[in-house]
Inverse folding.
């Protein structure tokens, strides 16, 4: 005959205790004895126990007493009962089902070897969620329930299972076994004491069963930190980890122990690093501290091992089968990466109880509610549809560029883009090397955008042409999807976002960017909507958005310095106007605007020395006479006002008339006037800057300021677009007006697309450029020997010196020493004049082996080159001429460089970049919710509201 | 302000005013269209010149570098230099001790070269290079070589054109010389009256550094009566010259290098002496063409009656007798065609035994021209024929004697579309030959011309002609800029 004693240990658990006690008393199999233990509760738990069990059955213990100690204390005082006595351990936050005990006892009767039995634990709040059906542990000490996070109980695991351990919440243990094993280890006041006990029980030859017919609901209040833990001053996470390691190391036989120590030292360091990356330094510290605390007290471990010595080795094979299989670690890693991509905290604290690793619900879109398949969901999204349509438009417009791009010998180039040659490693070398041997040799530090391009090329498998083609040729769809995604929080009306994104992507600036080969502006117009989105979040006080803005602004600034000036002025104005509204906005702005300055410091100093360069972007610029092929000098006032930056590839001025008209109409609406005013303010500001840019320097292209202006206009118009729906609904004249506005609004992107497709996206950009270095010259040049390229154009002879390969992107921004250039230019002029003398020898002393003139060679130049005795003509045809220097060619040795400063800066820049990346990347969503310890049912403040919302959201998600 | 923003029309008005203001700013600040000032090429004196006199044996070689032009101050910083006359030699051979060194600009150097020996190389640097001109002129009064035969010593180049009678009509000899340090891979192309001649013996030859070759064109193409010869190099440079010996009593002369194929060719320097004039035109391209002929004479410029055009089939040469049109008149011919053509002209003298002279298409002498050899001894006369087919021209003509001070330059005005013939007479007392320097004055139209040398001997007039070639005084140094964008077309 069984006799069951229930022991309920309470500690500040009044929130749950009432229900727990009721459930205990309502058991279908009545309890023989009930004992309540109050570990110094301050919330009236003692009174509740007394009320339920009667004053005689309640034991009051000090506040620092652990669970195990309390049970020991009770059993020490409780005389043994007749028959086979069972002890049922219950937490104050654990409600057993009415038939739980009955089921447990029935299972115990079936298996005489069963000494410890546990119920199926489900979540307290969401009562269908499975928490535990027996727990095991991995070799790294990680607690493992074998369940998916938030797995619903649908009976899928039901049955009586032989498990490694069960939780102390609802644990039914035979009293003689308890006495034999001397019960829970009091050295483990919290966490893993259950595992330790069950491990010892199994080692001693008993069985541990989980009985799914017995159900209990568990709040895991301590693990989830819903209450302060009084038994230890340490953080529960560290405690949990330390106890996990301790139990593992105390119970493993020696060989396995050694392996386990090695594995855990390595694993903990790795995990600590991951935590650091995930901006969870507290977790990292806990991880290392837990390991240190176990390894750092070898005597304690030895004592524990000594106590568990008996039968450890013999029981080990049986135990080992129950441990988590090794493959689980990889599965967890995969889960982690997936979680990181989904925007959750990247590293789940090892060994936490499942519910504690609850995903934040905030970011999951409503899309997740739909049951349709992934593919259907993706394609029915307006953003994706827009992206696809823009891609098709782009491909059609770029029809003349694609064949050359796909053929192996064509190079993409033209306008501001040098023919793209080389790969990621070439760009990377250009960025880090101290002395650039390319061209005439230069000691200037390579511009930082080279590093960005090197990174992009590395992503594109080292193929620079691919990266450039995607960014430059794909800038229209990329800008579209970027604008669509960035306005998600600003504009809720999806058709308005589609219109906005399409209009933005097909702005004259965008088509001009493609035709002009302006890689820098291409990147900025893709990033610009992201700047806007991040800036609004910075204004809302997000620090991470500030770091992100800083990082992306650094990228944009590296390509187009003017972008920084524009953002900085707008940011400054915003700080003056709205800085007082929220605490920390100013600091966030300083972060956002300061990051580019710090990351690009030496280069910005160079720019500041030559202020004219602020107006220019990366790539080739026109100078002197040639101005006019890439920009429109004397750009007409109406062009500027219609957001047309001039230069090749822009549609006629009227193409954007619809946008302006709609934005003007938006001014007439009554609501949300402030946002419209801000949008127009940005527009006017961008326009002003564009006017200044186009008037100051004929070689400067006002694309970026006009893109800013257009962004302002689009936000002003798009924000009011939802009123169209209202007007349409109201019927009559208003309906007509709404239709008219829609027609006018969509006229702009449609006209722009039609004009773009008609004109074609090329010219001056081409994709069939040949390598500027003729094959023959490439093959016959010794390393370091150069090929001088001459191109007479409009009465001037442009030249460039290439060393064995065409110039890389970024090499055009290197400035060789002035006197070298002058000497070399004089020699080239002498060569091109045909006046004889020793100019060829001067060139040969700079390492020139070949002189090439691409295209059909101007007769005067051909005569001049032919008249040089030291030049031997190698070939001459319609596609170009090639001459070879017959005499001695000396490659100038690279000068000795003191690259210490450069090297130091590169390392510093890399370090800063990693830091900013970590700070900007999604990591731990919020700070540790320390304030939640008290866990009052109704909390004040925004955090409480958010949690309430989360809980509500979770409830909503329960399938009917 | 806030109320203004909140009022819908207020905001609209505000924005419109701001837009208007920006439009105004953009409109007003738009710069006036500035005429782009093209950077001008700078004239710079030539610093080194190499020329090859193809076969000076038994000829008089004249070398001259005109004195510095006082009008151009840029020449003052010119380094002193010298010109060396030496037999052609390979780079390995040491400079011989018997080389002639000329280091005095402004004086004509002349010398009779003994019979025998190969080509002479004139190498000039520094001050002697700027405008260096050299020529060889042979004078024979009997035998197959009877006549005056002069040729300008030419710089080695990659391509030369010669237009004249074919190997079937005359003994044509091609002289090739390579004074450079790199071998020249030379190929020939003969365009005959029947089309391009493809030689089965191969039409290429390699001339090694310091080597010279003499090639009888009859071996290449025996049949053409008229021909245009293209000598081009696939690599390296070669100095080429062609001598035409028509036979005993029929004359001898060198063919001047003709201007490269162009759609408009000016054949200048046709003297006013009597005799036959035969025009040769070749169209080396792949299209037939009709060449329009216009004569620029002393009294005007017009198409010749019944000789307005000449048809030239693709890849062939054609000839036209112009004796009745321009015979006895100093002239230049302007030939225009839809496809590039090359042209030359044979001038035949009078008398029982004739001599011939050749002129050919030439460029205008914008930067001036120098003719090394001029003579006014005994019955020898030198003529300068200047034409201004496209606009009135003013040129300065100066004689450079071999001794003593140069006489003052003479200014010659040529009205538009006219030709003028000058008889060159050296100042009294000067002995021997002289050189002629022609410098177009600033603002002048393009000047074309030629120098003709004739000598009346008892059995017929001896003749030689040389179209004015651009002097190697100046080179145009183009504005040059280090431009990474040069890699883009």
């Amino acid at each position: 005959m069984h006799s069951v004693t229930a022991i309920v240990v309470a500690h500040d658990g009044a929130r749950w205790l009432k229900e727990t006690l009721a459930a205990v008393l309502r058991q279908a199999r009545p309890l023989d004895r009930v004992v309540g233990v109050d570990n110094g509760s301050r919330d009236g738990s003692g009174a509740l126990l007394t009320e339920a069990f009667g004053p005689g059955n309640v034991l009051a213990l000090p506040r620092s007493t652990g669970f195990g100690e309390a049970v020991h204390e009770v059993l020490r005082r409780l005389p043994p009962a007749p028959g086979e006595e069972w002890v049922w351990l219950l937490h104050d936050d654990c409600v057993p089902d009415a038939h739980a005990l009955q089921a447990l006892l029935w299972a115990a009767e079936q298996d005489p070897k069963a000494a410890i039995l546990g119920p199926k634990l489900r979540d307290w709040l969401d009562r269908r969620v499975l928490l535990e059906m027996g727990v095991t542990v991995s070799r790294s000490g990680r607690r493992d329930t074998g369940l998916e996070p938030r797995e619903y109980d649908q009976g899928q695991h039901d049955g009586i299972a032989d498990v490694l351990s069960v939780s102390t919440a609802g644990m039914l243990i035979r009293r003689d076994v308890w006495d034999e094993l001397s019960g829970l280890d009091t050295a483990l006041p919290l966490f893993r004491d259950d595992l330790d006990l069950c491990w010892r029980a199994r080692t001693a030859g008993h069985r541990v069963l989980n009985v799914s017919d017995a159900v209990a609901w568990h709040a895991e209040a301590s693990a989830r930190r819903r209450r302060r833990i009084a038994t230890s001053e340490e953080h529960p996470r560290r405690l949990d980890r330390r106890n996990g390691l301790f139990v593992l190391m105390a119970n493993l036989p020696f060989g396995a122990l050694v392996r386990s120590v090695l594995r855990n030292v390595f694993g903990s360091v790795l995990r600590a690093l991951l935590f650091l990356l995930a901006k969870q330094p507290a977790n990292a510290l806990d991880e290392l501290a837990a390991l240190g605390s176990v390894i750092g007290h070898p005597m304690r471990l030895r004592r524990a091992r000594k106590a568990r010595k008996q039968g450890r080795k013999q029981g080990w094979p049986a135990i080992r089968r129950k441990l988590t299989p090794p493959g689980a670690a990889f599965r967890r890693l995969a889960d982690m990466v997936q979680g990181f991509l989904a925007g959750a905290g990247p590293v789940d604290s090892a060994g936490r109880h499942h519910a504690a690793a609850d995903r934040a619900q905030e970011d999951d879109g409503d899309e997740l509610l739909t049951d349709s398949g992934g593919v259907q969901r993706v394609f029915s999204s307006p953003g994706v549809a827009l992206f696809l349509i823009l891609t098709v438009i782009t491909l059609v417009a770029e029809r003349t560029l694609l064949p050359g791009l796909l053929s192996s010998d064509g190079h993409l180039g033209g306008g501001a883009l040098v023919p793209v040659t080389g790969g990621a490693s070439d760009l990377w070398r250009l960025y880090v090397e101290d002395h650039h041997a390319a061209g005439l040799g230069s000691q200037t530090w390579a511009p930082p955008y080279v590093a960005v391009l090197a990174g992009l090329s590395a992503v594109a498998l080292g193929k620079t042409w691919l990266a450039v083609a995607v960014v430059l040729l794909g800038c229209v769809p990329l800008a579209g999807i970027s604008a669509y995604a960035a306005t998600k929080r600003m504009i809720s009306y999806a058709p308005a976002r589609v219109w906005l994104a399409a209009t933005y992507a097909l702005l004259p600036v965008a088509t001009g960017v493609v035709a002009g080969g302006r890689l820098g502006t291409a990147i900025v117009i893709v990033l610009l909507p992201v700047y806007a989105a991040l800036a609004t979040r910075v204004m809302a006080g997000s620090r991470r958005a500030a770091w992100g803005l800083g990082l992306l602004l650094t990228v944009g600034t590296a390509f187009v310095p003017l972008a920084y000036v524009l953002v900085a002025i707008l940011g400054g104005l915003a700080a003056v106007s709205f800085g007082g509204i929220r605490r920390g906005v100013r600091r966030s702005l300083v972060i956002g605007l300061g990051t580019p300055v710090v990351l690009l410091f030496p280069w910005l100093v160079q720019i500041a020395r030559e202020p004219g360069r602020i107006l220019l972007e990366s790539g080739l610029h026109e100078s002197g006479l040639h101005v006019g092929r890439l920009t429109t000098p004397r750009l007409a006032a109406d062009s500027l006002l219609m957001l047309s930056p001039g230069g090749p590839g822009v549609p006629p001025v009227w193409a954007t008339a619809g946008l302006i008209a709609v934005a003007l109409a938006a001014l007439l609406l009554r609501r949300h006037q402030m946002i419209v005013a801000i949008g127009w303010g940005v527009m006017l500001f961008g326009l002003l800057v564009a006017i200044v840019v186009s008037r100051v320097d004929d070689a400067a292209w006002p694309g970026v300021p006009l893109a800013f202006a257009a962004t302002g206009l689009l936000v002003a118009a798009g924000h009011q677009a939802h009123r169209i729906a209202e007007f349409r609904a109201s019927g009559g004249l208003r309906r007509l007006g709404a239709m008219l506005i829609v027609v006018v609004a969509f006229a702009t992107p449609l006209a722009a697309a039609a004009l773009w497709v008609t004109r074609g996206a090329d010219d001056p950009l081409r994709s069939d450029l040949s390598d500027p270095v003729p094959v023959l010259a490439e093959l016959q040049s010794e390393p370091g020997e150069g090929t001088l390229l001459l191109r007479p154009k409009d009465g001037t002879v442009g030249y460039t010196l290439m060393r064995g390969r065409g110039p890389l992107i970024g090499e055009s921004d290197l400035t060789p020493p002035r006197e070298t250039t002058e000497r070399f230019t004089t020699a080239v002029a002498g060569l091109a004049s045909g006046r004889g003398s020793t100019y060829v020898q001067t060139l040969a002393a700079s390492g020139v082996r070949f002189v090439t003139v691409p295209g059909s060679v101007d007769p005067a130049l051909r005569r001049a080159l032919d008249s040089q005795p030291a030049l031997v003509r190698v070939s001459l045809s319609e596609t170009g001429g090639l001459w070879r220097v017959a005499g001695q060619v000396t490659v100038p040795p690279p000068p000795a460089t003191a690259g210490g400063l450069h090297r130091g800066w590169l390392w510093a820049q890399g370090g800063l970049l990693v830091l900013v990346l970590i700070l900007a990347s999604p990591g731990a969503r919020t700070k540790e919710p320390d304030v939640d310890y008290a866990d009052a049912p109704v909390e004040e403040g925004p955090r409480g509201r958010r949690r309430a919302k989360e809980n509500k959201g979770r409830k909503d998600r329960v399938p009917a | 302000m806030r109320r203004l923003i909140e009022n819908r029309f207020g905001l609209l008005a505000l924005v419109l005013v701001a837009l208007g203001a920006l439009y105004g700013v953009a409109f007003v600040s738009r710069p006036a269209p500035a005429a782009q000032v093209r950077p001008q090429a700078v004239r710079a004196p030539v610093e080194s010149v190499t020329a090859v006199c193809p076969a000076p044996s038994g000829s008089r070689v004249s070398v001259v570098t005109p004195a510095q032009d006082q009008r151009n101050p840029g020449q003052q910083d010119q380094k002193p230099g010298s010109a060396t006359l030496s037999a052609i030699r390979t780079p390995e051979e040491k400079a011989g001790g018997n080389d002639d060194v000329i280091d005095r600009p402004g004086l004509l150097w002349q010398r009779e070269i003994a019979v025998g020996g190969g080509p002479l190389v004139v190498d000039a640097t520094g001050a002697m290079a700027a405008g260096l001109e050299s020529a060889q002129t042979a004078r024979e009064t009997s035998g197959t070589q009877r006549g005056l035969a002069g040729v300008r010593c030419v710089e080695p180049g990659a391509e030369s054109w010669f237009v004249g009678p074919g190997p079937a009509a005359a003994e044509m000899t091609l002289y090739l010389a390579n004074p450079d340090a790199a071998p020249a891979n030379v190929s020939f192309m003969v365009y005959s009256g029947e089309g391009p001649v493809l030689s089965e013996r191969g039409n290429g030859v390699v001339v090694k550094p310091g080597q010279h070759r003499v090639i009888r064109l009859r071996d290449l193409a025996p049949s053409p009566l008229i021909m245009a010869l293209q000598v081009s190099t696939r690599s390296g440079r070669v100095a080429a010259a062609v001598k035409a010996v028509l036979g005993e009593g029929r004359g001898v002369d060198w063919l001047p290098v003709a201007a490269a194929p162009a759609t408009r060719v000016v054949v200048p320097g046709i003297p006013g002496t009597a005799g036959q004039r035969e025009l040769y035109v070749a169209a080396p391209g792949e299209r037939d063409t009709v060449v329009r002929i216009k004569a620029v004479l002393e009294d005007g410029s017009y198409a010749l009656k019944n000789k307005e055009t000449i048809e030239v089939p693709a890849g062939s040469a054609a000839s036209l007798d112009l004796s009745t049109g321009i015979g006895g008149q100093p002239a230049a011919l302007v030939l225009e065609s839809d496809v590039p053509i090359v042209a030359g002209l044979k001038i035949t003298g009078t008398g029982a035994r004739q001599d011939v002279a050749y002129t050919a298409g030439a460029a205008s002498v914008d930067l001036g021209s120098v003719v090394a050899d001029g003579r006014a001894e005994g019955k020898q006369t030198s003529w300068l024929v200047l034409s201004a087919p496209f606009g009135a021209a003013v040129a300065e003509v100066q004689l450079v004697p071999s001794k003593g001070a140069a006489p003052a330059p003479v200014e010659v005005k040529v009205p538009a579309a006219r030709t003028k013939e000058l008889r060159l007479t050296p100042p009294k007392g000067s002995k021997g030959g002289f050189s002629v320097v022609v410098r177009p004055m600033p603002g002048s139209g393009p000047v074309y011309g030629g120098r003709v040398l004739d000598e009346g001997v008892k059995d017929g007039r001896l003749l030689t002609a040389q179209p004015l070639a651009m002097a190697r005084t100046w080179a145009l140094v183009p504005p040059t800029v280090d431009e990474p964008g040069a890699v883009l077309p």
Notes: Residues 8-29 of chain B form the longest helix (22 residues). Chain B touches chain A through 63 residues (CB under 8 Å). The first strand of chain B starts at residue 42 and ends at 45. Helices of chain B lie at 2-6, 8-29, 217-220, 323-326.
